[in-house]
Design brief:
The complex is a heterodimer of chains A (about 270) and B (about 350).
Chain A: H1 2-6, H2 14-36, H3 56-63, H4 65-98, H5 104-116, H6 119-132, H7 139-164, H8 168-175, H9 180-208, H10 212-217, H11 224-231, H12 238-273
Helix pairs in contact in A: 3-12, 4-7, 4-9, 4-11, 5-7, 7-9, 8-9, 9-12
Chain B: E1 7-16, E2 19-29, E3 34-38, H1 45-53, E4 60-65, E5 68-69, E6 80-83, H2 95-106, H3 110-123, H4 139-151, E7 157-161, H5 169-186, E8 189-194, H6 197-203, E9 206-211, E10 214-219, H7 221-226, H8 231-236, E11 241-243, H9 245-252, E12 258-260, E13 266-269, E14 279-290, E15 294-301, E16 306-312, H10 318-322, E17 328-333, E18 338-340
Parallel strand pairs in B: 3-8, 3-9, 6-7, 7-8
Antiparallel strand pairs in B: 1-2, 1-4, 4-5, 9-10, 11-12, 12-18, 13-17, 14-15, 14-17, 15-16
Helix pairs in contact in B: 2-3, 2-4, 3-4
The chains are: A mainly alpha (about 270), B alpha+beta (about 350).
Chain lengths: ~270, ~350
């Protein structure tokens, strides 16, 4: 892949290298600072260099029951929103890809819209709708809120995969005696599996660190990002907040990393087919 | 009427809105026949094939498979299988699993179906390829796998949708012979859709020529070539000269339009007396194209018509034939070699 083609490409100029390095630093230095200050013995101030070194905040953070509650809640919300998105997104992509119906293009556009809309607009809209329907704000309203943008991610991934798969494959399966369910199970699902995995991981990561929509759709519940947000008003807890931020970075980093890897591999094997 | 036809179309139409993709087609395909549906793109041949497979349903009329009405059965309940134009192999499965797919769906135990897969791989001359993935095979090899995957189900009728279209000329010719041999070996009805008239003539027992959703003519390759029933068939299958009106009358005594193949016309000197029983016309050579094996002449007949004449270069060289340009000639042919056209 990259290593193969980089041999033939010209070396980057020092200016370009410098610019790329600068961008990387700009993006990643703040994260390293957060990590750095999980290790400080000073609980209220950011002094540099660190006045000492300690890992006690990790212990303190793990002892906090409110943190655990929020972490569990965020996991549950992300898992259920992702599961709903996988099912709904796949069906929507299948409908838009396979059949030709009135308003197909509009539906495709409307499906993608939530991710383009500012979160605050989606948030207000959902709050008004949920309030108007007299649904109590709860765990499930958070899930609904998150599903709006999770569906898009899955939909986009699966639709792109459908467009790259040969349409006659489904006909071939039916021709060989498989009914719709068997065709889905043996032909469609294996072909979109990596797209589902990539889309699902991305959806999970998006849901896990969502703040704005959650603020509007949550009742008394505190998801992890909202817990972190509320910690800002408690300066004595800064190192604990930093510990949690570090954990979130790790949890978000892994699925995104694997999602990217999977998509890259999938497009490689498809390249061979042509 | 064919006795116990494998496929029978009874006044079948398929309309897509205003477009009459197939219009009032009656057709019978015999048991064990190698039958070709020949026509340009958009002529309705593929739609007919898709209706036999079950991917499409007739708007009107009925399709019978060995006297059983299958018009409204879904594809997976029809004892027919298809070889697709793009092969449609499943990229995530090995060749073995691709070929065994139909048997796996039917619930045949793995050991039993793997034995059948080996038989099929031998039939299509790909022994030992079972563990590869479709992406590791060439176009011709994928073609054979698609064929094996269809034939393993022992369908009553095998449908082939332009299966050789994506192959290069040499491989295509080789596969034509091979397909024909496999058909003889397995003995089932093959229905072959193609736009390539040479392919249809080479392989088929009978051919149906399609145009604009209708069948123009059904017949053996020699019928279709030597006795085209309509102007369309005469023009689509090979090259043909159409002669009508006053000039037709001069040659045959009737103004009825007839067609004559370029190779059936004998090119003689202007003063020659044609052999007894031969029809003849006088003309002037307007153009000569030397093509190595043969030469193509364009001869203008007095009164306006242009006829194409092809003569093999058995005794002539390029020097001889090119000097013919502008000369007066006498064209003659045997009256049996002309075909009167219906429409």
């Amino acid at each position: 892949m990259l290593s193969k083609s980089s041999d033939t490409r010209p070396k980057a100029s020092w200016a370009l290298t410098l610019a790329a390095l600068g961008t990387l630093l700009f993006l990643h230095v703040p994260m390293w600072i957060i990590f750095l200050y999980t290790l400080t013995p000073e609980e209220a101030t950011y002094t540099f260099p660190l006045p000492g070194f300690t890992t006690k905040w990790y212990g303190v953070a793990l002892q906090r029951p409110d943190l655990w509650r929020s972490l569990t809640l965020s996991f549950q919300v992300a898992a259920i929103a992702t599961a709903a998105a996988l099912i709904l997104g796949t069906f929507a992509a299948a409908a838009v890809y396979r059949s030709n119906f009135f308003g197909r293009e509009s539906i495709s556009f409307l499906l993608v819209l939530p991710i383009a809309l500012p979160g605050i607009v989606t948030g207000i809209a959902l709050r008004t709708a949920i309030g108007g329907l007299d649904i109590p704000f709860s765990f499930w309203t958070i899930v609904i809120g998150h599903a709006t943008f999770c569906v898009v991610v899955v939909y986009n991934n699966v639709l792109a995969r459908f467009r790259r798969t040969s349409a006659t494959m489904i006909e071939a399966s039916m021709d060989l005696g498989a009914n719709s369910f068997q065709t889905f199970r043996h032909v469609v699902l294996p072909n979109i599996a990596t797209a589902l995995l990539a889309g699902g991981m991305l959806a999970f990561a998006l849901s896990f660190d969502e703040v704005i929509v959650t603020t509007f759709t949550a009742g008394q519940q505190t998801t992890l990002p909202i817990w972190i947000f509320s910690q800002l008003s408690r300066p004595r807890d800064r190192p604990v907040t930093n510990v949690v931020a570090t954990i979130v970075i790790l949890i978000t980093f892994l699925p995104i990393f694997f999602a990217q890897k999977i998509s890259a591999e999938a497009s490689d094997t498809e390249g061979e087919m042509k | 009427m064919i006795k116990n036809p494998a496929i029978r179309f009874d006044n079948v139409s398929r309309h897509f809105g205003e477009i009459k993709a197939v219009h009032q087609v009656d057709l019978e395909i015999g048991d064990g026949e190698f039958f070709s549906m020949l026509g340009p793109s958009g002529s309705g041949k593929t739609t007919c094939l898709r209706m036999i497979a079950g991917f499409d349903r007739p708007s009107e009329g009925k399709i019978f498979l060995y006297d059983r009405d299958v018009s409204n059965l879904p594809p997976y309940e029809r004892p027919v299988n298809t070889v697709f134009q793009d092969y449609a192999l499943f990229p995530h499965m090995t060749i073995e699993d691709n070929i065994a797919y139909g048997l796996m769906i039917k619930g045949m135990p793995k050991i039993k179906r793997m034995k059948r897969v080996d038989e099929m791989l031998n039939l299509v001359r790909l022994p030992g390829f079972g563990y590869r993935k479709p992406s590791q095979l060439s176009g011709g090899q994928r073609q054979r796998v698609a064929l094996a995957r269809a034939l393993i189900n022992q369908p009553k009728v095998l449908l082939l949708d332009e299966p050789l279209g994506a192959l290069d000329l040499k491989l295509r010719q080789q596969m034509q012979v091979e397909l024909k041999n496999i058909q003889r070996e397995v003995g089932i009805t093959f229905i072959f859709v193609t736009h390539d008239q040479e392919e249809a003539i080479t392989m088929s027992d009978r051919i149906a020529v399609f145009s604009e959703g209708k069948i123009e003519q059904v017949g053996s390759p020699s019928d279709i070539y030597e006795r085209p029933a309509t102007e369309f068939v005469a023009g689509f299958v090979g090259t043909s000269n159409l002669v009508s009106g006053e000039i037709a009358k001069r040659a045959t005594g009737s103004t009825k339009t007839f067609s004559i193949r370029p190779e059936k016309i004998h090119l003689g000197f202007a003063g020659d007396t044609p052999a007894a029983g031969m029809a003849a016309l006088d003309g002037t050579v307007r153009d000569v194209v030397y093509l190595g094996l043969y030469t193509r002449y364009l001869v203008e007949i007095e009164g306006g018509a242009d006829l194409v004449v092809i003569e093999q270069n058995l005794k002539t060289t390029s020097m001889d034939v090119l000097s013919a340009k502008g000369q007066k000639v006498k064209l003659s042919w045997h009256p049996d070699h002309i075909s009167h056209l219906g429409s």
